[in-house]
C-alpha cells in the first residue's frame, strides 16, 4: 500500500529557508522521515514537491489510481488555494494536513487554511518530525477503516 506525500511551494528550500522557523532539515530528510514512518506499517511513500500549483493538482489526481491516502504540506497554497481543496475533495482520499511551524502562532494570514475542515489528520508545529506523526496517524486511520 502507498501514500502520496505532497510538499508545496518553497519546501524545496527547506534547510536554507528561514531556519529559525523551519529548522535545518532538508526536503530529502523530510522524505526519508516519512518513508521510514510508513515502512514501519508496510506502506510505501511516493514523494512529490512542486512550486507549481497545477503539478500538485495532477499528482493528487493521479493518487486516485494507487494511493490509500495523502500527506500534504501545501505551504502557502494552504492559505490561498480553492483548487487544491477541490482536488483533495475530488479524489476523496483521506488526507493529513501538516505544517512544520506553528501557523497559529504566526501572522494572522496563516491562521486560515482551505484544507483544515476537510482533513482527516492535522499536525502543526512539530517541526519536520511532524511528517512521521502525520504518516502514522493517517495509516492508523486508513487501517481502521479498511477492516
Ligand atoms: C508551512 C506554513 C505556511 O504558512 C508557509 O507558507 C509554508 C510552510 C509550514 O510547514 O509551516 O510554506 O506550511
Automatic annotation (TrEMBL):
GO molecular function: 3-dehydroquinate dehydratase activity
Catalytic activity: 3-dehydroquinate = 3-dehydroshikimate + H2O
Gene3D superfamilies in the record: Dehydroquinase, class II
Keywords: Amino-acid biosynthesis, Aromatic amino acid biosynthesis, Lyase
Enzyme Commission number(s): 4.2.1.10
Family under the similarity heading: Belongs to the type-II 3-dehydroquinase family.
Organism (species): Microbacterium capsulatum
Keyword Amino-acid biosynthesis belongs to the record: yes
Active site, UniProt feature: 22 (proton acceptor), 99 (proton donor)
Name of the protein in question: 3-dehydroquinate dehydratase
Role of this protein: Catalyzes a trans-dehydration via an enolate intermediate.
Any one Pfam family match given in the protein's UniProt record, by short name: DHquinase_II
Oligomer status and interactors: Homododecamer.
Pathway: Metabolic intermediate biosynthesis; chorismate biosynthesis; chorismate from D-erythrose 4-phosphate and phosphoenolpyruvate: step 3/7
Lineage, uppermost ranks: Bacteria, Bacillati, Actinomycetota, Actinomycetes, Micrococcales
Enzyme class: lyase
Family matches, as CDD domains: DHQase_II
Binding site for substrate: 73, 79, 86, 100-101, 110
InterPro entries: DHquinase_II, DHquinase_II_CS, DHquinase_II_sf
Site positions per UniProt: Transition state stabilizer: 17
